[in-house]
Amino acid sequence: MQDIPVSERPKKRTTGIVGLNLLLDGGFPVGTTIMVYGTPIAGVDLAAMQFWKVDGEEGTYLMNDGDVESGMIDASELHPEMYMTQMAGSRIVVDSLSTIIIKYGIEEALKFLRLARDEMRKRGANIMFIVYSGIHEPVEMTRIMRAADIVMEFNSEVHQAEIERTLAVQKMKEGASPRRLLPFIITDNGIEASTTSRVV
């Protein structure tokens, strides 16, 4: 084993969520492809929004299956091949890859992902794409996860009178995935993740 000098450590880009930055030792490695998945009520869209809206960095939010808000690009009628020409800045969000798979098929979605991944690495940018759980075949989910550098799962469970939300980093390319779940709540300002570990 050897120590890695600070100058050789990969550069990180903030996730937009303080507690997640701490869990990932600073954020997402620059140039990575990030998959966030869960149900529509688990917080995946909020995580994508917070990643996109970090102050001081330009980004592109391609919306193809929801309401297009100020600053977003309406990608509902765009073929995935057209997405590449729309991507500006260092924070790219595709909401959602699930819609691309349903409209154009898994092969077209994976082709787009490979092109986007190569482009992000070249530019030193990051791309985050949303996948909704429970609507894709297991083999499709496996192929999507293999194409991503980072895979994060968002969960929401009801316990008596409370909703408990957690996220898990399931995959980190070229690094160990954090071993603990990150509890979070949804507030008026979006996702607020816990920055402390609970001792049982």
Structural class: alpha/beta
CATH architecture: 3-Layer(aba) Sandwich
Q: How much strand?
A: 25-35%
Radius of gyration: 17 Å
User: CATH superfamily assignment?
Assistant: P-loop containing nucleotide triphosphate hydrolases
Widest sheet, order of strands = 5-4-6-7-3-8-9-10-11
Overall pLDDT metric: 91
How many domain modules?
A: 1
Distance between the termini: 33 Å
Helix content: 25-40%
Tell me, briefly, the overall form.
globular
> Major sheet: size, sense and barrel closure?
9 strands, mixed
What order do the SSEs take from the amino end to the carboxyl end, as H and E?
EHEEHEEHEHHEHEEEE
Briefly say what this structure is.
With 200 residues, the protein is of the alpha/beta class. 29% of the residues lie in helices and 30% in strands.
Written overview of the protein:
Helix 5 runs parallel beside helix 6 (138-147). This protein has one domain: P-loop containing nucleotide triphosphate hydrolases (Rossmann fold, 3-Layer(aba) Sandwich). The protein is globular and about 45 Å long. It is 29% helix and 30% strand. The chain is built from 6 helices and 11 strands. A hairpin with a 2-residue loop joins strand 8 and strand 9. The two termini are 33 Å apart. The model has no long low-confidence stretch (mean pLDDT 91). With 200 residues, it is of the alpha/beta class.
